[in-house]
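Notes, p. 3: input format for complexes.
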Amino acid sequence: MRSEDRAGVRVITLDNPPVNALSFAYAAVLCPALDAAEADPAVRAVVLTGANGLFSGGADINDFTSDPGPGTLTIRDVIARVEQSAKTYVAAIEKTALGGGVELALACDYRIATAGTKLGFPEIKLGLLPGAGGTQRLPRLIGAQDALQLMLKGDNIDAGDALAKGLLDEVVPADALGAALALIARVAPSAPKRRVSARSTELGIKGLGLFATPFVVAQAHKMLPPEDNGGFAAHKLVDAVEASIELDFPRGLAREFRLFDELVRSAPSAALRHVFFAERELGKIPGMPPAQAKPIASAGIVGAGTMGTGIAICFANAGIPAVVIEPSDEQIERAKQMVFGMFAHQVQRGRMTQEEAWKRGQSIRFESDYAELAQADVVIEAVFESMDVKKTVFAKLDTICKPDAILASNTSTLDIDAMAAVTTRPAQVLGLHFFAPANIMKLLEIVRGNATSPETMATAIALGKTLRKVGVVSGNAFGFIGNRMLFDYAREAIQLAEEGIAPERIDRAMKNFGMAMGPFAMFDLSGLDVFWHIEQGRPDAMHGRTRIIDRLYREKRFGQKSGAGIYRYEKGSREPIPDPVTLELFREEAAKAGVAQGTVVTDDEIVKRLVDALVAVGNELLRTGIALRSGDIDIVYVYGYGFPPHRGGPMWYAEHAPKELVHA
Ligand code: 3H9
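Output follows (664 residues plus (S)-3-Hydroxyhexanoyl-CoA):
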């Protein structure tokens, strides 16, 4: 912490690298500093500001695993001192203020930020609610409706929006500290305190008086996921905001503290905090020599299918121009329509201006000649999933691309080393496995070949961040992390169905567990023919072929694309309809294989068998070094396969779920 006096104003700079977290230890530093300012008659006002390029990332998330114990000072004690002070407090905010950082600012009399500053309450993403007065002060300041929206979503808002909502008093182009000092010079020393806590909460909905509170609160509860499946913190947050309307400030605050303390000890919050820290570990590769990422200013993509075009859109969104090579005019037309449709949708939703959409659309160029890739810094192939085709593409790229260009494959299963071997630059070859739809899904598997250099890895990790992806490093093995595990998960689901459990029941059990989609609906979406082709190509890695997949393939039941797969589909609809024909096929195939039907299982047991299948492969991937950490596997499943984040990912779940739900 730094503290200096400027003409009767004490400037206290939060300085607790890297993000000025308001930890227990830092509260022990801040509290005496605030007490000293309070006691000093020469100090008429205090400005709180931040070092390290931001105001504060909030309370220290590491502290949440330990009980502060009696006498430990916390962020709440810091904020209580600001609240009770007779002096004028101004928060001078630059760049970022999150969670407890904003809560500290809310206790000040004034809040000033520089343009472009991001403010937010991400606690909900950690399975928490703002627990240092945020749920009581924010509704009092900006109205219950806006406050609920902000805290329930957990997304950041820009300083301009925060000003419009009344969260900030002033936004300045630069130098928030200078603006804070100028503001204090304008405020008369005798001016009354501007405590947010002294205000009362308005609902913030035009035409609705406070009498409508029970209705609004009931509506908010109704819109949330169930308490026992992803909505635990959200429901408590609504309760806390309700308290800000119905109770006086001290009682509301006491309610908030109790709700926060309940959440911080809850299983969903522990799981979500694990996801937070696992995400921050991702770029770290133990044992890899440090290397500098190379700048990527232009990209090439081979193939204008759905994947290639989606990848091009990712680059356009990140401000990196991309050339897409595609021989078929017809396919180029389809790809252009996809690009146009996607950006038009963003404009319609108000997420992008027409001008910005135009600019991004123009930064994607479709060409038929590989020579157009000569100057690209990175080229990603997204052609048909066949090793022969990929090798031909890599050999061609190697002759055309500039010597220091990185060549990447978007393969979802194939051997990166085999592709690298047909080039003269294996150190610059790796896998960049995007997930469909590539412009939406956050996951990116960064596949490290035997020869991939540290510099190539560092560049790919940095590129992943630029593309706003969650990049997980994987070793080069069949199916990498995600699909390798998915195959065994799928086989276990099929095994259950062969034992006589209806596919729709299996899907329902997994959805109730919190998966975005059940395994069979996912089969139908991605195409059973795709699974069949993978099994044909690598029966060794897939533990042999699957009878039912063979059968469905022969019956031309490929999934949504053919109108029937595991489920059937009405024309033009993606709604899976349970199909007795499939049950019969499972029965016949089970009979041929001598698998007895009639297994009796509970839904919990279905979940247990499927999660166990994932975890068994996950452990194997860890043992063989394909996955670096179990947290990496969890991130793959949360961001790429719809595993419920409040259950922490399969590996976390297996370790932390109630033991009766997980096989030993
Ligand atoms: C809260 O405030 C609760 C209160 O309402 C009530 C309390 C009673 N704590 O992301 P980065 C570490 S809950 C501890 O790579 P960036 C992070 O692990 C908190 N550590 O940097 C990493 O460590 P390492 C609500 C934290 O520049 C390093 O800092 N706040 C915290 O890309 C750099 O992180 C949040 O949820 C923290 N709060 O992004 C904000 N924050 O170097 C969470 C970061 O060892 N944080 N670290 O790997 C963020 O969103 C981003 O870190 C931030 C910086 C935008 C701040």
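The longest strand covers residues 9-14.
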